[in-house]
Amino acid sequence: MKRILSFILLFGLVLNGYAQRILNLDSCRALALANNKELRIAQEKINAAHYQQKAAFTNYLPKIDVTGSYMRTQKEISLLSNDQKQVIGNMGTSVGNELQHFGQELQQIAMQHPELLPLLTPLSNAMGKIPGALNNAGQSIIDAFRTDTRNLYVGAATLTQPIFMGGKIVAYNKITKYAEQLAQSQHATGMQDVILSTDQAYWQVISLVNKKKLAESFLKLVQKLDSDVSKMVAEGVATTADELSVKVKVNEAEITLTQVEDGLSLSKMVLCQLCGIPLDTEIRLADEEIKDLTLPNTYTESNVNTAFANRQELKSLELAEKIYRQKVNVARAEFLPSVGLTANYLFTNPSLTNGFENKFRGMWGIGVVVKIPVFHWGEGIYKVKAAKAETNIARYQLEDIKEKVELQVTQSSYKVNEAVKKLTMAEKNMEKAEENLRYANLGFKEGVIPASNVLEAQTAWLSAQSGKIDAQIDLKMSEIYLNKSMGTLK
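Now predict its structure.
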């Protein structure tokens, strides 16, 4: 039987745990930081800046590129003109006319000297073959000079190594480094904003939970007083006016309780939204049962230098100023000499190195490229001045924000001191209100104090108790705002 009861109890606890989620301040912060979309965006900006820095570093290293192309043309490139082709192709025919005249002279010699006929006959036969041979040789020369470039293939592998670029590469690497740090700083700023919003929502819920308890307690007080007055009216020791006054207070207490319950529901929905959980989730906060918040007895004076050292907004502006300074170097580098080493291997088909034969052949080359800007109508000077102006803007913004941070820290310090004084006064008022309520209840029971005085004492007690809750939350939030202004909110 005991085992069955234990199982039922355990099962009930498990169901209750699933039905109602218990959260403390740290878990709310953790959920808010994990589920906030803006923080995720900020984290992706950090990743992007990190890879941009890596990409900027590669500008120090040699780069290898391979390119290729194909082109089909209507006509091929010809190294010989049409007239030259005509002359070379028909040079045998041109020589043949001269040889024919020379043959006629040989015939006359043979007629005059018959004894030479056996020698001149082979020579005459050979001269008859010379024109055709020369024509064939000329055509061979024309064919040899054909480029056949209607189908052209070109490819190149190029290596480029920057040697001196006017400081541009160094400046870009510093810019990307600062940009990554800037993204991290902005992410840290976003985290503090999320923590601040979460703390505000958390303590708002705690405040309303305590006010709900207070409203319930006050409702019980006026309901008991209403019961007592009704009995006294029945006995003739109290008037109907007293009874109506008490009933009005009961109605007001019920309305106040309803308003507090509605506000508590909305505040919990806001906290759920910040934590990234469904709005209809039943949550319960770990600090709901705390009657008095843990507050420091003494307050340490704020340090503006601490704010200057920790405020992420100031770090962001300092990094922005550094980035703009490097942009001045980038603008200046555009108009300084640049030196680069280049090496390549070029291959073509038809070949350019062996008589335009239809084969892939190539050659390598190596050289140095130097670029020296000479005259650009003062463009470089104007760009450098513009970059310096942007740097001055960033510096002025930093100085302005520092002044505002100092003022914010001072104001937050005053608010904390003021909240401490208000809490002290609220505690004293609470002591007086409890004492007055005790005497009013005692006098009412003895019949020496009317119901109206009891209602006044109860209202004063409600106001004092509510004021104490507000003062505690106000001091808590003032400390949070002070830590935020000093950049120490964690």
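The CA atoms of residues 74 and 220 lie 103 Å apart.
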